[in-house]
Amino acid sequence: MNQENLNFRKGSEKDIPEIWKILQQSIERRKNDGSKQWQDGYPNISTVESDIEKGYNYILTLDDKIIATAALIFNDEPTYDVIDGAWMTHEDFLVVHRVGVSNEVAGKGFATKFFQIFEDFAKKNEVFSIKVDTNFDNLAMLKILEKLGYSYCGEIQVRDGARKAFEKILR
């Protein structure tokens, strides 16, 4: 697939059905991988609608077809206030949540590319830290974070238990 036809943009109301379809595919992939992450009714369609409404949702398109989705939030993640460990920085940061990739492109490097785009997006907004968390058994995400040089900072607590927390400094 030709990555020259990639476009990163904010999601809109008209994108909700496709975003939700991609997240459902990602939920099913987590289940098939044996992960417990996203197996409790979250995220759901209301989550997607809320992300769009708040301006958090961003998508990646290939030839104008949505292939990936994520919530990108600046400086606002209350669950990150308490960490069993330590964040590397205490400056402005970009939080990455709810990353989903369509089955059509899963395993082809687009999630990694999406994260590289997040890094550029943060820097363009003069933010030089990205924070992200994932379940202990989400091996696909753990592999991406390791490959891209994210540092393990400790554990945070979310609605259904502990998550591994990571940070990458972009300077």
Automatic annotation (TrEMBL):
<keyword id="KW-0808">Transferase</keyword>
<protein>
    <submittedName>
        <fullName>Acetyltransferase (GNAT) family protein</fullName>
    </submittedName>
</protein>
<feature type="domain" description="N-acetyltransferase">
    <location>
        <begin position="6"/>
        <end position="171"/>
    </location>
</feature>
<dbReference type="InterPro" id="IPR016181">
    <property type="entry name" value="Acyl_CoA_acyltransferase"/>
</dbReference>
<dbReference type="GO" id="GO:0016747">
    <property type="term" value="F:acyltransferase activity, transferring groups other than amino-acyl groups"/>
</dbReference>
<dbReference type="InterPro" id="IPR000182">
    <property type="entry name" value="GNAT_dom"/>
</dbReference>
<dbReference type="Pfam" id="PF00583">
    <property type="entry name" value="Acetyltransf_1"/>
</dbReference>
